[in-house]
Amino acid sequence: MQKTVIVTGGAGFIGSNFVYYMLEKHPDYKIVCVDCLTYAGNLSTLKEALKNPNFRFEKLNICDREKIKSLFSEVKPDIVVNFAAESHVDRSIKNPEIFIDTNVKGTQSLMDVCRELNIPRFHQVSTDEVYGDLPLDRPDLFFTEETSIHASSPYSASKASADLLVLAYRRTFDFPATISRCSNNYGPYHFPEKLIPLMIINALNDKPLPVYGDGKNVRDWLYVEDHCKAIDLIIHDDRLGEVYNVGGHNEMSNLDIVKLIVKKLDKSEDLITFVEDRKGHDRRYAIDPTKIKEKLGWFPETKFADGIEKTINWYLNNKQWWEEIISGEYRNYYKKMHGEA
Ligand code: NAD
Ligand code: TDX
């Protein structure tokens, strides 16, 4: 059956991958992207989607309740998937306020509009960071959906707050929502301030590779297409009020990731530079995805060895995309973080 899906934050990394995934998987669906194009959103990312008659882009801030209401009234979506967020932990440490505005108030505003218009389904894209971190010396521990919320950074606190609001709207107003909490994604269109694209691009440019602290922090990496598949399954399932953990069972230390990228690009490990640690730096994330596997049959299909190969090749073949980005506002950010552009 033909459906209309509103994708907020669809000009960012995961949202744009989701737009492409949905246009291909459901060629009869209408996909409407709502994005205000912050530093992290790029229309060039949606260049191919914009050629598709089933795709529409609206430059709008999710906090602008009136304009969102007017668009949603016109479009009458069957499903709203909320990716829109400030997503970078380091930026949240420098300037927390915008994280509260977009991630908390923006989510609330979207839900209010959906309630007013009786939109039948809302999905909140959340993160494993809401659970805080796990110790490195307890590899037997994983985050389950029952793990208590224990956020460490202003970013994760804002995402946790949004999750609590979604669950409260579910209970109080019978709001038709679901939540997914995913581990670290990697793949095409990943903004170059995040670990994997930053290391690929700096290595290609023979620039220092800044590893925070001792580099032993562990993340659980998932190829972005597998995340998109998980969300597609969740929004097409009738169970409401569910929270699903989504993860790749693919834990790696930051240093191992950086060394792998250096090796693949045939560069020298001398580029690796240990820098001051991130404040409040989470040690380890590890997802137990048993629930989504058992209830929806989801599993991470892309092996890390294949995913990282595809990702590196994508950055090699799409230089124009990231060269445009690193020549803009990004330079100011990089200068503030690392002292040189
Ligand atoms: P991103 O920073 O690449 O993209 C965010 C997008 O949201 C951008 O296009 C930006 O312009 C847009 N946006 C920001 N504020 C907005 C606003 N007020 N109104 C409208 N649009 C706005 O982020 P991402 O990495 O693609 O993450 C997408 C979602 O997935 C976020 O909610 C994030 O918390 C979550 N998540 C990300 C990861 C990851 O590894 N990147 C993992 C788990 C969950
Ligand atoms: O230059 C760097 N050097 C470094 O050592 C950068 C940018 C990062 N790191 C470390 C910090 C983290 O331990 O690498 C790890 C990954 O860092 P990020 O790419 O900034 O991701 P992270 O903080 O783990 O958060 C990501 O995953 C969860 C996303 O940005 C979030 O939006 C998502 O919720």
Structural class: alpha/beta
Bound molecules: nicotinamide-adenine-dinucleotide, thymidine-5'-diphospho-beta-D-xylose
Which CATH architecture of the domain at 4-186 and 224-249 and 283-303 is right?
A: 3-Layer(aba) Sandwich
Order of helices and strands: EHEEHEHHEHEEHEEEHEEHEHHHH
The strands making up the biggest β-sheet line up spatially as 3-2-1-4-5-6-11
Q: Quaternary status of these chains?
A: single chain
Q: How much β-strand is present in the residues?
A: 15-25%
N-end to C-end Cα span: 50 Å
Query: What coarse outline follows from CA principal-axis ratios?
Result: globular
What's the total helix number? 12
What profile does the largest beta sheet have? 7 strands, parallel
**What do the pLDDT scores average to?**
97
CATH superfamily of the domain at 4-186 and 224-249 and 283-303: NAD(P)-binding Rossmann-like Domain
Using DSSP, what is the number of strands? 13
Output the radius of gyration. Answer: 19 Å
Low-pLDDT parts are none
Can you summarize this structure?
The chain is of the alpha/beta class. 41% of the residues lie in helices and 16% in strands.
Task: Give a structural overview.
The chain has 341 residues and is of the alpha/beta class. The protein has a domain at 4-186 and 224-249 and 283-303: Rossmann fold. It is 41% helix and 16% strand. The chain has 12 helices and 13 strands. The strands form 4 sheets. The protein has a 7-stranded parallel β-sheet, sandwiched between helices. A two-stranded parallel ribbon has the order 7-10. A two-stranded parallel sheet has the order 8-13. Strand 5, helix 5 and strand 6 form a beta-alpha-beta unit. The longest helix has 20 residues, at 97-116. The protein is globular, with a radius of gyration of 19 Å. Bound molecules: nicotinamide-adenine-dinucleotide and thymidine-5'-diphospho-beta-D-xylose (TDX). Residues 8-9, 11-15, 35-38, 40-41, 61-63, 83-87, 102, 106, 125, 127, 159, 182, 184-185, 191 line the site of nicotinamide-adenine-dinucleotide (NAD).
